[in-house]
Amino acid sequence: MNIIVCIKQVPDTTEIKIDPVKGTLIREGVPSIMNPDDKGGLELALRLKDQFGANVTVVSMGPPQADVIMREAFAMGADRAILLSDRKFAGSDTLATSYALAGLCKTLDYDLIIAGRQAIDGDTAQVGPEMAEHLGLPQVSYVCDAKKLDNGNLLVHKENEDSVQVLEVEGKCLLTVLASAFEARYMTVSGIVEAYNKEVEVWNADKVGYDESRLGLSGSPTKVFQSFPKAMKAPGEVHEVSEEEAVELIVNKLKEKHII
Amino acid sequence: MIRSFAENEVKPLAAEVDEQERFPMETVEKMAKLGIMGIPIPKQYGGQGGTVQMYIMAVEELSRVCATTGVIVSAHTSLCMAPILEHGTEEQKMKYLPKLASGEWIGAFGLTEPNAGTDAAMQQTTAVDAGDKWILNGTKIFITNASYANVFIVMAMTDKSKGTKGISAFIVEKGMPGFSIGKKELKMGIRGSATCELVFENCEVPKENLLGQLGKGFSIAMKTLDGGRIGIASQALGIAQGAMDETVKYTKERKQFGKAIAQFQNTQFQMADLKTKVEAARFLVRSAAWKKDNGIPYSADAAMAKLFAAETAMEVTTKAVQFHGGYGYTREYPVERMMRDAKITEIYEGTSEVQRMVIAGHLFK
Asked: What are the tens digits of pLDDT across the range B309-328?
């Protein structure tokens, strides 16, 4: 069984702050990590590998620094790592990203693709499902459990808001996975040692062969117009009163709060 | 990886292990599974094939949350596996290292005696050649991991007339006839670490368990301690870093006179000095480990790293308690434990005074 796992390097958003003026993320000094849902996906792949034997290939699109998470994947037990890295991918939205990753998957031999449900820096939950569309694969999103059946099909649990749907999937498919359902294993010491003896394959766009108008900024119909932190405001009080009563009410409130 | 393991698996037990003076066997088993018990041992002997640098970084991260766990790994690795790896025969390596490196067995080291502390040459434990075996008699004290260890590196006098050149090293296994574990020490810190006496009463050790050449025991012990000191320096560094982290967190939360105590210049200046010392200690420790990894003499480097890291750990933890005020003196906060744990790093595997002797010895040779 050949499994492809899509992983992404993201800033650890539990430690991130937002520039109150520009409304953008302050990334300086924020550690980069493997996206938690993707790590859950890798864990699922490794559990299938432990049980049935499998070749697990992790793929990612990102700058050369993403090498770190590829090696982390090796240290957890992945067999192969391919990093798509090229300036042509810069500025990609989810559509261009899914097109690029799907194109990479087409060149590989696989039985199953696993992606995280969503990345903690964008929270779109679109890349996995879009990849399935590009590849013409059946997909199950929000996966909280998956087992391989004797007939070779997958028995997949999909978590809905108020229920769990159980599906049997035949043939090649794409799953998007919840981190909370697959607690990731620790890297092992020997895994870490070996991770640095293994090669992370870095592929550029030419190696895959794309319609370049669909890559990067030109392939991205989504533009971020503005981002801003949610303003936290205490709920106000509404009083339907006359003008005189309003004056008295306000004066009393201000006295109550020791403002006047 | 070690940090998340330490945070998730080791930290939650640290207070309990200290309070109950309990050896955290469940943690050792988990560390064994991940390969932490055999980091710098080559793969052909069942280890992980990592470097000394990786190993001491692991000790630092473990000690950051629990100094007991740090010293279990350090004594096991530096004091038991390292001398077998560096001085053992191929048969000895094949017999002992795979079980030790996998964590199935725990290792320990016995040099100190009631009358041979810093003056380690005054060994009174004897080993007599009885033809097909060695007969050991004597007592070792303050032995880390003792009651849980399966393999011990033990120094004994084989020829008193030759002084330090009459000391030899032996590999002793738990259960060898005449070998028993004596009383357990009740300690100020690292209270989860099992520190006991070793008692040899006509203990029979097979002939092939002599480690290294006859009469080379003292030299083996000193070389072993050179390596061990990098481990203890890392433990001290970890304790210091742990106390720093706790204090930064606390002083940002704790408000007095209407503001967080982290906003007072006294706090900031003192913490800046401590941070600088912790980083300086880290560079000394990493440099000593780098030299050991690269086959460069590192004896003085290890002594400087241990001296500085241990004294830094003591200073940082003492000030950490002060910054925590009355709360720091209680067991509600971990800095109280860290201050007790830090003290031993100035004492074991050579006191700070011994480190100064070693450093001066290199300086004035």
From this structure: 999 999 999 999 999 999 99
- Written as one letter, the residue type at A224 is V
Closest CA relative to residue A229, chosen from A16, A3, A8: A16
pLDDT given for residue B186 in this prediction? 95
What residues contact B134, with CB distance under 8 A and at least 6 apart?
B127, B128, B170, B204, B205, B206, B207, B209, B210
Written as six digits, the tokens of B163 are 């002084």
**Interchain CB distance below 8 Å, A189 and B48:** yes
Asked if the Cβ–Cβ distance from A193 to B49 is below 8 Å, we say yes
Closest CA to B170 of B105, B111, B253: B111
Burial A182-209 (b: 16+ CB within 10 A, else e): bebbbbbbbbbbbbeeeebebbebeebe
For chain B, positions 31-90, list CB contacts with chain A under 8 A.
33-36, 38-39, 43, 48-50, 54, 58
> At residue B338, does pLDDT exceed 80?
yes
pLDDT of residue A27: 73
Q: Are B48 and A75 a contacting pair at CB < 8 A?
A: no
- On whether ipTM exceeds 0.85, the answer is no
Q: Looking at beta carbons, which residues of chain B come within 8 Å of A187?
A: 1, 34
Other C-beta atoms lying within 10 Å of the C-beta of residue A171: 11
Interface test with chain B among A34, A43, A188, A189, by most B beta carbons within 10 Å: A189
Whether the model clears a pTM of 0.90, i.e. scores above it, the answer is: no
Burial label for B2, CB within 10 Å (0-12, 13-18, 19+), is: buried
CA distance linking residue B131 with residue A230, whole number of Å: 83
Q: Which of residues 174-233 of A touch B (CB under 8 A)?
A: 186-193
Sequence-ordered list of residues with C-beta below 8 angstroms from that of A213, at least 6 positions apart, any chain: A219
